[in-house]
Amino acid sequence: MSDRSEKLEAALQERLNAVHVEVEDESHLHAGHAGAREGGGHFRALIVSERFEGLTRVQAQRAVFDAVATEMNEWIHALSLRTLTPSQWDEVS
Amino acid sequence: MSEPTAHARIQALVDGNPVVLFMKGHRQMPQCGFSAQVIQILDSLIPEYTTVNVLEDPEVRQGIKDFSNWPTIPQLYVRGEFVGGCDIITEMYQSGELQPQLRGEG
Questions:
Q1: Which domains, ranges and CATH numbers included, belong to chain B?
Q2: Rounded CA separation A72/B69 (Å)
Q3: What is the DSSP letter of A31?
Q4: pTM as predicted
Q5: Cα distance from A2 to chain B (closest Cα, Å)?
Q6: What is the pLDDT of residue B4?
Q7: Is A63 on the interface with B (CB under 8 A)?
Q8: Cβ–Cβ contact A2 with B under 8 A
Q9: Contacts of A82 in chain B (CB under 8 A)
Q10: Would you give the DSSP letter of residue A93?
Q11: CB within 8 A of A41, min separation 6: which ones?
């Protein structure tokens, strides 16, 4: 796990009060890509939080993007998201 | 007369076309893996839709992020409504929700 993905995982956990977070740094898959040249990382995150209860997918992902808006501007080029409520997580895990 | 703002141009695109994808590159030649993935999904479901290459238009590239309150590209609009980015479109495709929405049955 990279330093940046650890940092992102901690930020998501804390700011979204998440019960489960998994972050993968996929930047290596995009080496040479325009965004990667600018230094921004590509990450994939699974986030499980009660905050997503009753939200549409768009609303849930907006909540995540809002929570890490500073990071999105600074060092995240792309963030793939899967947002689940604890009960949805129970069904799939 | 001043040039229409990016916001007004985006509004016109979204209002004037039933399915609009804001993407990096062209439908025939996407310049980003996420845009390419959405093109592949849309191509499998509907014959005609509108694409806007944000790489050719810096104002729209930033403007669409503010317009949608969504920080990444691609972004899909269907009948004026923001549907989501690559992850949401892929999830909706896999669950069978996307096709009825594209056809106006959703």
A1: 6-103 (3.40.30.10)
A2: 13
A3: T
A4: 0.90
A5: 22
A6: 84
A7: no
A8: no
A9: 87, 91
A10: -
A11: A2, A4, A25, A27, A75, A76, A77, A78
CB B25 within 8 A of CB B53: yes
> In chain A, what are the domain boundaries?
3-85
| CB contact at 8 A, A46 and A82 | yes
Distance from CA of A1 to the nearest CA of B (A): 22
Residue carrying structure tokens 């895990």: A93
**pLDDT one-digit tens code per residue, B22-71:** 999 999 999 999 999 999 999 999 999 999 999 999 999 999 999 999 99
* Phi-psi map region of A15: left, alpha, beta (phi>0 left; psi -120 to 50 alpha): alpha
Question: What ipTM was assigned to the predicted interfaces of this complex?
Answer: 0.86
The distance of A69 to chain B (nearest Cα, Å) reads 8
Task: Tell me the longest C-alpha to C-alpha distance in chain B.
Answer: 47
CATH superfamily assigned to domain A3-85: BolA-like (3.30.300.90)
- B14 contact partners, CB below 8 Å, separation of at least 6: B20, B77, B80
Question: From its phi and psi, is residue A61 left (phi > 0), alpha (psi between -120 and 50) or beta?
Answer: alpha
What is the rounded CA–CA span in Å between residue B20 and residue A6?
Answer: 36
